[in-house]
Amino acid sequence: MRASANKAGLSLSTFSKRVCLGYSVPSLEHQKARIELRQLKGDLGRLGGLVKQALADGADRQTVHRLLRELDARQRELQLAITLIR
User: Fold this and answer.
1) pLDDT at 24 over 80
2) 0.70 exceeded by the pTM?
3) What is the domain count for the chain?
């Protein structure tokens, strides 16, 4: 039980209480994965800002709009993945 509590990043008493009361106990690994995915989503947002800046600086509009749509689609996929990790 101690190993499971450590894996969840909780004290043994908190872990035991949550399990006994039927609450979900997310693992520390899942929490880290969600944080990493959120950081990646933010990176995609910043990249989108740079692409928009390229558009303002005279880049090909079709190419920029295609890239922005692709970035938006990847952000939606990441958000879905974040919500699926429990």
Assistant:
1) no
2) no
3) 1
